[in-house]
Amino acid sequence: MCALNISLCCSIVSHWDSIQHSSAYPTDAFGELEFEGASRRHSKFLRLSCDTPPSIAYKLLTADWGLPLPNLVVSVVGGEGRAKVKMWVREVLRQGLVKASQSTGAWILTEGLREGVGRCVGEAVRDHAAAASSVSHNKVVALGIAPWGLVKNREQLVNPQGSFPAKYYVHNTSRDSCSLDINYQAFLLVDDGTVGRRGGEAGFRAQLEDYISKQRTGSGSIDIPVLCMLISGEKNMLKRLDLSLKQSMPWMVLAGSGGVADLVSNILESLSSSPPVPSSADGEGEMGPTVDLKDRVAERVRKHFPSETEMDKLVEQVLSIYQNKDLITVYHGEQEGPDDFDTVLLKALVQASKQRVSSNSSPYTEELKLAVAWNRVDIAKSELFNADIQWKYEDLEDSMTDALINDKPQFVRLFTENGLNILDYMTYGRLESLYCSVTDSSLAYSLLQRRLGERQGIVGSQVSRVLEDIMGDVCQPFYHSPLELENITSQRKALKLASRFLQGDCQYRKTRCLFPWASLFIWAVLQNRSNMAVFFWEMTGESVLSALSACKILRELSRLESEAEAKLAMKELAQRFENLAHDVFSKCYQSSESRSFTLLIRKSPMWGGTTCLEMGIAADARLFFSHDGVQSLLSQIWWGDMKRNTAVWKLLLTFFCPVLMYTHIFKCVLNINEKAPSFTCKLFSASSGTRNTLPKRPFILSRWRQFWFAPVTSFLGNVLMYFMFLLLFAYVLLVDFKPPPPLGPAFTEYITCWPNMWNTFSLFAYDLCVRMFQWSYESGRAMLCVDYMVFTLRLIHIFAIHKQLGPKIIIVGKMMKDIFFFLFFLGVWLMAYGVANQALLYSYDPRPSWIFRRVFYRPYLHIYGQVPVEEIDVGKEWDTNCTDNLTLIEEGMEPCRSEHNNWLVVILLVIYLLVTNILLVNLLIAMFSYTFSKVQGQSDTYWKFQRYNLIVEYHSRPSLAPPFIILSHVHLFIKRYIRKVPSIKILHFVLEVDGKAANKLMTWEAIQKESFLIDQSKIQRGSDSERLKRMSVKVDNVLKHMAETRDHDRRLRALESELEYCSSALSWIVETLSQSNMAKPSRPPPTPKGTLPCFSSSL
Questions:
Q1: What sections of the protein cross the membrane (predicted)?
Q2: Three-state SS for 107?
C-alpha cells in the first residue's frame, strides 16, 4: 500500500493528473480507528493510492481485517454533499437497503462521511445493529471509500508506524460534515493527491466493484453479485454510470430522488414507452429515428441541466446509457415503498445476469442461485415456485448441493417438494463429496482426517470407521455392502480391498444410496446441524430408531468436543432427538400396543441390525426408557407368559412345591381353554409373518416351561439361593470356621464355597486358598470377612428391581459422589490439625503406629465427640506413666506431654471442631439435600432405565440358581448342540421382521410420525409467538392496502383535475366554434346532464 505526495514546485497546473503531479510513498495512515467519546468497537482504516490494485484491497478486507465474504455488494453512489435527503429516501435506505443487506449478508459501499446519503446509511446500520438479535448470522457490513483529501481532521490518522488505535475526534456530530462516520466497520481512504476535491476515489471504487463481481461468494456457488444504486447525483455521475454499464455492471436508479437519477429514470420510462417518430426529411428515412431519439434526449437533458455548456457531451453519454437500458432498474421508492426492496434487488440482478448467461440455461436458474446464496426461501416460494414454472431435475441439482453444503434446510425441503428426486440425486459419489465439504473447524472433520490420513479417495470406508468408533458394537458397520466388505473383519484388509475397488472408473460412486435420507441424516448429525438433521429425520424411515441413533451419535461427539459452546449444542440436540423418539413412540403406543412392542425389538436393516432397545441403552436415553410402553414390554419379558399380578409368595411357594404350578394358584396368560395368544406366541408370529405357528406342547410341559423360563423365576431363585448362601457364610464365619488342614475346613465351608465357584470364583477361591495355610490363616479369615461384606452389599444391586427400593438406591448412589467431595475437605483439615496437634503435644515420639493414630484416627473421632481432654489439656491430670528420657521413649515408653504452647493446642481444637462439626457437616447435609431434591424427581426415570439391564441379565441366565445351575447348563448343551433346537427366548429382545410384515410396520410407523408432526404443527401455530407473527402479517397487509388506497385516491384526484381541464378546454372550443362563421351547426350543442358520480367532490 502506498500514499501520494504532491510533487509541485512553482509551476501552475491547469489540469490535475495524479500520475504526473504526484509520487508514491509508503502509507503513513493505517490501523484501527477509535472515535473519541463513543463506546463502540474500533473501525479499520487505510490510506492508499488511487492506482492500488483492487485485488490487494479485497484481500486486505477479507483476509486481514476479517470481514465476512459477501453474498451481495450494494454500492450507493450519488447524494454527496450537504444536500438534504428526502424522507422517503431515508426510509428506503433504512427499511429497504439495510434490511435486505442483513437478510442476504451484503456489503454496503458508500463514501463513509457524515454527510448526505453516507450519513443516512450509517444511521440505518446503527439502528439495525441496535434492533437485530445478537445471534443473527448475517451482520450488515458498511464500508466507506472516501477521498483522503476530503476527510476532515485527517492529520489525526497519520502515523508511519500505524495507529492501534488512532484517536479521531469530531467537533460537531449534529451537522453534516466531511468527517468519517462512526457507524462504518472499515474505511479505505483513497489518495489521488488532491485536497478538498470530490470524486478522487471514483476510479478505484469502480475497479474494486468490478473485481469483487468476479469473485465467488462464501458458499462458492456463484460470483458475488454487485449492484450500484444511484441516488440523486450531479452531472459527472453520467460518466461513471456510462463506464460502469459498459462493463455489464447492473444499476438501480431511485426515481424521484433528484439530479441524474430523475433524468435517467425519465428518459428510460418515456423513451421506452413511446416509439420514436420518423423524421419527415427526404433521404433521411433511415436516420430519422436516431435523430428523433437524440432530439428528445437533448430536450430532457436541457430541461434538467439548463445552464450546462457541454450539452452535446452529456447527450452522447445519455444515449450510451440508453443503449444499455437492460442493465438498469428504475425503482419508484416513493410509490412502491421499502417493504419489497430485497425482491426488487433480486429481480434487478437477475435481469442483468440474463444478459450474460447462455441461451441453453434456464432463465430462472440465476435467480434461484441468488435466492439460495441469500437464503431467501420466501422469495423463492413467491417468485420461482408458484406453479408457473416447470422445474427440471438438472436445474435444481446444483442448487440442492449448495443448500446442503451451506446448511439451508428450507431450500432442501423446497427442492424435494418441487421435482427433485432424492433417489436420483443421492449417490455414493455425491455422499463422498458432501463429506469432503465438511468445514475444517468441525469435530467431524478432525475425526475423518484421523481415519482418512493421506488416502483422500476412500471416503466411504473411512466414514464407516468413524461411525463404528462412535456407535461401538451396537450396530454393524455402515456402507460396507456397496464396497463388498460385509465379511471382512480386518481393517487393514478392508482398506486394501476398498482402495483396489475404488481405483479407476468404478461404478460405486454412481450407485444410488440404499437409504438416501438416512445417509443425509447421519451426515447432518455428525456436523451438529440441528435444523437440517430434524428435517432429514422427518423424511427418513424408522423414526424412533433414527432419533435414538442421532441421540447416541451426538452424546458420543459431545464427549469428544473440546469447545464448551459446541458441546452444549450437541447435548441439547441429543435431548431434542430423545424427546422426538419418546413422543413418536407415544403415538405408536396409543395406536397399537402389540405393534409398538414389535417396533422396539425389530432388527433394522437401515441401522446395521440393531433394535430400538439396544440403541436406547447405548444412547443413555433415560426418558425414552421411562415411557409406559417400554416399561410394559419389559414387564411382559420379565414375567414371561405368567400374569403380572401373580403374587411373589405364590412363586416362592411353587419353588418348594412345583406341583402347585398345575393348580389354579398359578395363572398364565395362555390357558388351555383361552384363545388369546401369549406374549411369546405374538413375537413368534411377528417374526414368521403368520399367526399361532408356535409348536403346541402338552399342558404339563407347557406349564413347566412357562414357570421356569420366566426371568422373574430365575431372579427369585437366585435371590433365594443367595440368601441361603449369606446365612450359611455367616454361620461359617461366626461359628464353624475351622483351623487349616488337617483339622479343617468344615463341611459347611465346602457347601458355602460350591455356589460361588460359578460367580465370584477368582476372589472367593483366592481367599479360601490363603486360609488353608498356617502362616496365612488369619489373613485368609480376614479376607473372607471382607468378602462377606462385599457379598452382602451386593443385595443393593439385586433389589434395584424393586419399584420402591430402586429409586431410593439411585439416590443413595448419587449421594456417594457427594461424600467423596466431603472426604476431600475433611482430609485436608484432618492432616492440618492432626500434624500440628501431634507436634505441639509431643516433642518427640518415633512410633509410626501412634503417629498415624494421633494424626488421623484421633482427630476423626473428635468429630463424633470423643475428645480426650485430659490428654490434650496439660492442666488436667493424666494417669498414664510417661517419661522424657529419649532412650526409654525409643524403647517404646509413652512420652510426656509438652507444656509449652499448650494454649495453642486448645485454640486449634476449638477451630477444628468448629469447622468440621458445624461447617463441613452442614455442608454435607446441604449437598445431600440438593442431590435428593434434584434426583428425587428423576429417580423413577433412572430406575426404569437401569431396570432394563437387570432384566436382560436374568433373562439370559439359566432357570436354576447355583448350585443347581449345572443341571441347566447340561440341559442347554444337549438342546442347542445335540438336538439343534433354536432358542425362542431370543425373540424377546431381537426380532427379525421381513417381507410384507416389515413394510406394514414401517408404513404404520410413518403414519404415526406424520400424525405427531401434524399435532406439533397445530401446537406451534397456536402459540403466542405464531399468533403475533400472523397478526403482524395482517397488519402489514392492511397498511399496504391503505397505502394503495391513498395512491388510488391521489390518482383519481389527478384524473379529476385532468378531466376538469379537458372539460374547460372543450367548452372553450365549443364557444369559439359557435362564434365562428366557418361552419354552421345543424343542431344546438348538447347541454350537460350532470357530473360523473365516480369523480364527485366526495373523493
A1: 707-734, 820-844, 903-925
A2: strand
For the segment 531-542, the average pLDDT, to the nearest whole number, is 92
Q: Model confidence over 354-369: pLDDT tens digits?
A: 665 544 556 678 778 8
Q: What are phi and psi of 251, to 5 degrees?
A: -130, 150
* Rounded-to-integer distance, Cα 439 and Cα 421, Å: 26
d(CA 120, CA 87): 10
Question: Which residue blocks in 735-771 are alpha helix, DSSP H?
Answer: 747-756, 761-770
| Average pLDDT estimate for 24-35 | 83
Cell triple for 35: 472515535
pLDDT band at 559; cut points 50, 70, 90: very high
> Average pLDDT over the chain, rounded to whole?
79
Taking CA atoms, 134 is separated from 137, 327, 1016, 1029, in Å, by 9, 37, 28, 20
d(CA 97, CA 379): 16
| pLDDT for 455 beyond 50 | no
Q: Given the C-alpha cell 350543442, which residue does it identify?
A: 1085
Confidence of residue 678 (pLDDT cuts 50, 70, 90): low
Distance CA 693, CA 226 (A): 73
Type and span of the H or E element at 26: strand 22-26
Strands 30-35 and 43-49: antiparallel
Comparing CA positions, the residue from 30, 100, 51, 94 lying closest to residue 72 is 100
Q: Is 813 buried (19+), middle (13-18) or exposed (0-12) by CB count in 10 A?
A: middle
| Tens-place pLDDT, residues 993-1011 | 888 888 999 999 999 999 9
Q: Which helix (H) or strand (E) holds 482?
A: none
Beta carbons within 10 angstroms of residue 940's beta carbon: 14
Q: Which residues contact 705 (CB under 8 A, 6 or more apart)?
A: 697
- Alpha helices, DSSP H only, in 660-776? 679-688, 699-708, 711-734, 747-756, 761-770
**Contact criterion met (CB below 8 Å) for 236 and 246:** no
Say which amino acid occupies 637: I
In angstroms, the CA 56 to CA 19 distance is 20
